[in-house]
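Cross-check.
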Amino acid sequence: MPGEDQERLAERGAVDPAVAAELRGLYLRWLEVPHGSGRSPKELKRRLAALSDRFAGPQAMAFRARPIPHAYRVFYRHIGLDPDEQPSGPEALVLERMLKGGFVSRSLLDDGLTIAMIETGVPLVAFDAAAVSGPPRIRPSAAGEGLDGRPSPLPAGTLVLADDVRPLALLFGAIASGRGVSPATARTLLVAVGVAGVPAIAIEEALWIVAEVLEGG
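Predicted model, tokenized:
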């Protein structure tokens, strides 16, 4: 659980007023960490393996019914997404664990994200902080606005995570080309979207699990 100093450093992101009025309970938190990714150390791989052992079949099957994953499933349906066809980050990891027999170690950042999302049920997304102009926010896309790397513009009103200049990612979806974390990333921007029924302390904990992994790596 984060301490008082850590809670103070997790920033509040803005939500477009019209979106906030329609989707009550939607909120945003973000945290910039002065570290990039890299190879996972043996200690982190062991931690991930231990989490796989604890998260066996019965726990995996019951995951979506837990209060926080369930809150995201409700929100997904409210905005027109099918959580079974487009699962949240934590649910996608659970499916992978069931198919592959364990959580797969990929990198320092990815392993930190896996641990945070499974332990808290909160979806997280990471950006290269140097590729983001200003604090992240939730807003609808404007007419003709697109996501870098996609050939066609987004339908107007698509919910996106954006900076002061452009969309960074679809809300709970794809990241724009050139905005994600790469081997050259020196500073990582961690973003968590909260919905009704998800306590802010869970969001804070998820962000700080990843931050501590990056700082310890």
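Residues 200-216 form the longest helix (17 residues). Residues 1-8 have pLDDT under 50 and may be disordered. Passed to J.P. for a second look.
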